[in-house]
Specification:
By secondary structure, this protein is α+β, with helices and mostly antiparallel strands. The chain is built from ten helices and seven strands. The strands form two sheets. The chain has a five-stranded mixed β-sheet with strand order 5-4-3-6-7. Strand 1 and strand 2 form a beta hairpin.
């Protein structure tokens, strides 16, 4: 099956298993190094502190092992916008009173069991039909999303405690891929790309990519190249790009220099509109 334009990370069963093991390990190590006062520090993830990032990962991986959900009523916090958000909040509420050590022990136990399960799966298993947060697809697609989700929450923890890292390598590449998969929707639908207009993203690092978006048969998508200069070009770090796509920072803050800022050329109005509409996560 051909690899879509703009996609760089490996997605074999072995690749995805390795990426998940790596990001789980980073989360566990980071959690063990956090000072207790930082455990409940606010994070960029709306409504969640540092500890909630861990509860969320534990909850999703527990679900994938077929374990029951806690019988807890999380109420209806303002940051819950859909059923998936409600499911996530159950685990956050259930583990809210647990100590840092208890939560980290639970993380290491559930990810150890998930690692065993993943390593026992074949390529055919990863290609089997499965429900995913973006609709019916296959198990491979779900695990691509799991790498992205876990990495985003690792970055939430890092930003919450002021300890940057983990923004290069296969996990970060897979996470940028997940945003690339959404760029056609983001630029075409959310930002309202005008007919005949094009947008180029130049990611300057730690993950480096050149991404061009154009309308093909009436639908915006990432394309191998453009026939000429883009209508608008945005040059920014992958740090800023990912945080904008996940709704962790505002376009205004990046325009003011956050995470290295952004250099824009071409149609400034279109460039600003794209920046302001990059967020797509649920």
């Amino acid at each position: 099956m051909p690899v879509p334009t703009g996609i760089a990370a490996g997605s074999s069963a072995a690749d995805l298993t390795s990426q998940l093991v790596d990001v789980w390990g980073e989360l566990a190590l980071l959690g063990r190094e956090i000072a207790d006062p930082q455990w409940h520090a606010p994070s960029p993830c709306p409504g969640w502190d540092v500890s909630a990032q861990y509860a969320h990962v534990i909850g999703t991986e527990s679900m994938l092992l077929g374990r029951p959900n806690p019988e807890v009523d999380p109420g209806k916090p303002d940051h819950i916008r859909n059923d998936i958000g409600g499911f996530n909040e159950v685990w956050v509420a259930a583990l809210a009173e647990c100590s840092r050590e208890e939560v980290l022990d639970a993380l290491e136990e559930v990810t150890s069991e998930r690692t065993k399960a993943l390593k026992a799966m074949t390529e055919e298993d990863f290609s089997a039909p499965a429900w995913t947060p973006v609709g019916q697809a296959d198990y491979r697609r779900f695990m691509q999303i799991r790498v992205f989700d876990c990495w985003v929450h690792e970055q939430d923890v890092r930003d919450g405690i002021g300890r940057p890292g983990g923004e290069s390598g296969p996990v970060a590449e897979q996470s940028v891929d997940e945003i690339v998969r959404a760029l056609g929707f983001v630029v075409g639908k959310k930002a309202g790309l005008p007919a005949e207009s094009t947008v180029s993203f130049r990611l300057t690092g730690p993950v480096k990519r050149n991404l061009d978006v154009a309308a093909v048969d009436g639908r915006a998508k990432v394309v191998p190249s453009l026939d000429g200069p883009a209508t608008a070009t945005l040059s920014l770090s992958s740090s800023a790009f990912c945080r904008l796509a996940c709704g962790r920072v505002s376009a205004e803050s990046v325009l003011d220099g956050a995470f290295g800022g952004v250099d824009m050329s071409g149609d400034a109005d279109l460039g600003r509109r794209v920046l302001s509409n990059l967020a797509f996560t649920i």
